[in-house]
Fold:
Amino acid sequence: MTKRKVVLGLGNILNRDEGAGVYALKELEKILPEEAKKKVELVDGGVLGMDLLPYVEEASHLLILDAVDSGAEPGEVVEYDSDEIELFYNGRISWHQLGFQEVLAVARVKEKFPDYVYLIGVQPADISVGVGLSPALKNSVKEMAERALRILERWGLLA
Structure:
């Protein structure tokens, strides 16, 4: 069975910048070459938590786009490789991350953790109730999408 190559956008778009991962996924969809769209699944994971387990368990490559509280300036984009992600998710900014941390942990315990896992995140400015990104993040989600392209290229998924 061929393993999935998944780009997963996480976040709650009803909490402004908390939805940055979902917005970044939409930006990636605009710039991803058509041939690559046949190889890579773009998944709006929203706040689905444990319902995302099959995507993780069946993936060889998992690229996560999300809002992260890294202590950086609002709008700053950060990147974490596989081992760093679990450490990062100990400092949650929202409830969906609790669910996704558990998804990663369950996949690891079941020995169905993807071979390649990477997180591209952005420091939120405003996670209050509301729709749309804060001005600080308007360009950041585009940068997240561009960085995602570079990771997909490094993984050999754009050729």
Remarks:
- The beta strands are 4-10, 41-46, 59-67, 77-81, 116-122.
- The chain has one domain: 4-154.
